Amino acid sequence: MRFAVVQFGGSNCDRDTHHVLADVCGVDTDLVWYKDGLVRPYDAVVLPGGFSYGDYLRAGAIAARTAIMADVVRHAKGGGLVLGICNGAQIGSEAGLVPGTFTLNAYPKFISRHVYLRVENAASPFTSLYREGEVVRVPIAHKEGRYVAPADVIARLNREGRVAFRFCDEHGNATPESNPNGSAENIAGVLSEAGNVLVMMPHPERASESVLGTEDGVKIFNSMIAHIEEHGRQEA
To answer: Per residue in 53-91, is it b (16+ CB within 10 Å) or e — as a string?
Structure first.
């Protein structure tokens, strides 16, 4: 089993994510510079957080048009897992891996704090070690994290179980007050149509060791590992 963590100019959570995968989860993991492309086969690709290309134009817009993202899209179309975290979520949405987009927070300032998430779908390759309705605590750190999409897209995501996480309070209530950035229907994580891509604004890699105050995020990575162990790499 092998994971790739893609590094763009401006990525700043790449080594944190690599540490969690390699040292905490024990997975063979490569740091892949975006100019090098995916030259080896990978079971999963992670697009980490940061500020690729300084968030010029729109966050993730330039990185989504680099050559390596064509490799990532092919990987996803072949059934490989892709996880986009924060800036990686913005890149994934800009590359068309999921519908909708991430834009300026409702109150347009940078937010960095812990939030609560409610697990909406516990049957995906990224969430199978959670319980549906489970409340987890993870950090966010973004200025352009508000998820928006047309009403019919939101309805389809709900109907197909493709909302992975929603912002909520500590009791699991998805209220306006518990929505830190104004995302539509408190959406914090979205799955692709095939379910093998997850993009999310919160940072699970920053919530994967007890020294960080919460280990709630590590289940995402361990769920991916368990899925690959059970199903192997899926081919198109």
So the answer is: bebeebbbbbbbebebbebbbebbeebbbbbbbbbbbbb
Residues whose CB is less than 8 angstroms from the CB of residue 144 and which lie 6 or more positions away in sequence, other chains included: 55, 58, 59, 90, 102, 103, 104, 105
Q: What is the per-residue pLDDT across 147-172, written as a single tens digit (0 to 9) for each? A: 999 999 999 999 999 999 999 999 99
| Residue 83 contacts residue 126 (beta carbons within 8 Å) | yes
Per-residue pLDDT of 1-17, as tens digits, reads 999 999 999 999 999 99
Residue 13 CB neighbours (<10 A): 22
Instruction: Kindly state the tokens that stand for 223.
Output: 């769920």
CB-CB neighbours of 234 under 10 Å: 15
Which residues are catalytically annotated?
86, 203, 205
Say whether 160 sits in a helix, a strand or coil. coil
